[in-house]
Task: structure prediction
Amino acid sequence: MSSAMFRSFSVFNYRVWFIGALVSNVGAWMQATALSWVVLTELTDNDAGAMGVTMALQFAPPLLLVGVTGLVADRFDRRRLLMVTQSVLLLLGAAIGVLILLGVMTLPLMYAFALALGVVAAFDNPARQAFVSDLVARENASNAVALNAASFNGARMIGPAVAGIVIVAVGTGWVFLVNAVTFLAMIVALGMIRVDELI
Result:
């Protein structure tokens, strides 16, 4: 029963990808939590409107650009595309963290970063989802997708909790820097994948 449940892990490429994606997803949820916290407590005085704008800027691009980003994920080498999106997300996270630590982050600047994160995520998300089918044979695809979903939901529980601990311990800026480092896990995983074994 358990071996059937985890059968996708018998594939080297999927194992490497799963670990990288899990670490990266935990970081992404840490960042999402810290971003909201910064807007509410550091850049405004609990302004729910500003928080709403920040969320809209992050989540509107994946919805509005879905026709274009889906086409890009189908047309281009998904592994290389993910290397680009993950690298850009790493740089954005690091930049936000540095600006917060230097005390120069402003609300308009955070809006710009939120929009940039949303646009990059719009290309990253469909490529990630489609890439799973490149890693495992068709008979294991549903199992791989299910494990991915479990990983994503696990990260959604762990990420905000870790973010809260880091915010209390060392401050919000460090959450973004930690998140930037987590993207390295995905980039390393993508680099380790055996291209000749992709489906």
The helical segments are 2-5, 12-43, 48-64, 66-75, 78-102, 107-135, 141-170, 172-192. The two ends are 26 Å apart (CA to CA). The CA atoms of residues 24 and 77 lie 20 Å apart. The chain is about 85% helix and 0% strand.
